[in-house]
Amino acid sequence: MAISHARRTTSALxxxxxxxxxxxxxxxxxxxxxxxxxxxxxxxPIYAGLHDGHFRAYQHSEPExxxxxxxxxQHGGAVIDATMVAGPDGLIYTLKDGxxxxxxxxxxxxxxxxxxxxxxxxxxxxxxxxxRFRVSADAKGDxxxxxxxxxxxxxxxxxxxxxxxKRVLDTGWNKYDQVTTSGEGVIWARNPSESxxxxxxxxxxxxxxxxxxxxxxxxxxxxxHWRILGAGADVLYGLTKDGEGWPGHPAGSEPNxxxxxxxxxxxxxxxxxxxxxxxxxxxxxxxxxxxxxxxVGGTVPQRPGLSEGVDRASSxxxxxxxxxxxxxxxxxxxxxxxxxxxxxxxxxxxxxTVPQSQNLTGGASxxxxxxxxxxxxxxxxxxxxxxSLQPTKDALFGVGKDFGGxxxxxxxxxxxxxxxxxxxxxxxxxxxxxxxxxxxxAELRPWTKSYASFPGTNPGPTPKFAxxxxxxxxxxxxxxxxxxxxxxxxxxxxxxxxxxxxxGWTALGQPTGTTLASxxxxxLTRDGTVQLAARGTDGRVYTKRQGTDGxxxxxxxxxxxxxFLGQPSILTSTGGTTFVVARGTDRFIxxxxxxxxxxxxxxxxxxxxxxxxxxxxxxDAGVVAMSNGNWVLSYRNEFGEILVAYATTSGSSVAAxxxxxxxxxxxAPSFTVKKTKR
Length: 678
Known about the structure:
This protein is mainly beta. The chain has three domains: 14-296, Tachylectin-2, Chain A, CATH 2.115.10.10; 302-311 and 362-507, Fucose-specific lectin (Neuraminidase), CATH 2.120.10.70; 509-678, no CATH class. It is built from three helices and 51 strands. Strands 13-14-15-16-34-33-32-31 form an eight-stranded mixed β-sheet, with no helix packed on it. It has a five-stranded mixed β-sheet with strand order 35-39-38-37-36, with no helix packed on it. Strands 4-3-2-21 form a four-stranded antiparallel β-sheet, with no helix packed on it. A hairpin with a 4-residue loop joins strand 5 and strand 6. Keywords: Signal. This is Tachylectin. Residues 1-24 form the signal peptide.
């Protein structure tokens, strides 16, 4: 069937067409964002593989306005008998029998005579009708694919190495029957089961690995189209099904019409519903060039840089086999893993640098997955995070991979009581971004900007946060997150996944007569409340404890008068005693603890030392409570050597968790200290 091109010179607003059309798009109030304008090439090519396999390039010359004006159709000699995916700069990919072939259409013909380059041979299952509507490429050439199990994948082909980079972005996408791109990372997905077809808009920024928008719903009635195409800058073309026609254009005489739409994300408004012709047979393979139009003048995520030093405490984890693991960034910018050598001596470690880790700074964060594998994160000076996951439990870390982020802070990763990992960062605008797992041991989803929800209450303030790592501790329900604002005041919120801090943020105030200079460390105490420790500008360490009713009305309390550097660490042993560890102004490590399990009175500060003279510290000390009731701390000296101290005390043992033990004063622990050289 020949294509018929209408020749009207004006476009109608979609809202005007709603009177007689079954397709409706809700118009929303404009949002205040950076001004953007649309910029398009001379025409937007729409490529079609006909029933007989012949190739056509139809060229809409008014993609900005939707006016029904078309340049002459170009004919290609190559036969297209496969699922087509259009990329930027005239690239055409065909998918059939597991093969992905790449050609380039130069506007009038094929480069290289149409001879394809085979770029993959393991892409089976994309040539059937349901699947071919769930694969698309964006204006950068990145592929977005939804597999039969509903997993959304991102694929990028690196031409220089002939390799593919792949990421899992989301799950649960089997509710969508069409997925198309229209701009860099902009994904439009149709749910046919909602409101006779509802579109959802997503935007993924591949370099920062962030969701800039997630599942924004649009309108109803989109099921009238058998195919929805994207030409960039949120320009969409809908090809109507048999029997569906646009107002004033009966489907009986003008079947399979093409309708133009354009969405403006900066104002959340639509233009279009413009009829542009008919004859687009539902048996054709039809795609649009995704780089035909682009938005100009908008904002994209920026790299704020990271200025944190490498004097941060190591991140410590005890795994299920009883071993303690340490992770930190060394002065050379590498990511170092220290593993307890045997099950007898927690102070004996073997050191290993994660391969190809470089240009890192700040603090590292370590967490154990449900399957026992360790996940480590650290940030580069370029604000991109390095992620490294053990390939199998107890194996050496492999080469790390880019984890995106564009962070201004060091990352924090923690495992919740549901065994799902969640990661947190602060960006250059003082906002917190989160990243978590959909299921245990799965890849972490892209970064999502956090938000506060207030069910049944009035919204409270969300502060601008300082560019320092947040603290996170898993309680019996949520993950409790503590973050400092730009004035040094800590705030606390309960995190429940998917970026959602239910109930919003609560300000924790400042100690009387001073302000806090460090971030707050946190521990979950024996009664399920959270206790904090932070250093004030006066050098003293202060603590604050959550009430049993969940409130934070108590005051900050000073722990004696010794002065310190950096950020103190805090832990609660299995026996219920809370310990605080800090680096003194004399550069030695000190500890104190509650005089009774669960108590509020602290012993005087005790110098951490073994049988030899104490060793000065160049870093803060990291800590971890062990399952046997004892605990471990570690720090590094000026030579980059790690010193591990094993603390034993009868008051912190498992046996001490009895009614009689609670009334017994907890003595200061004794330490066994061992140094491991690089």
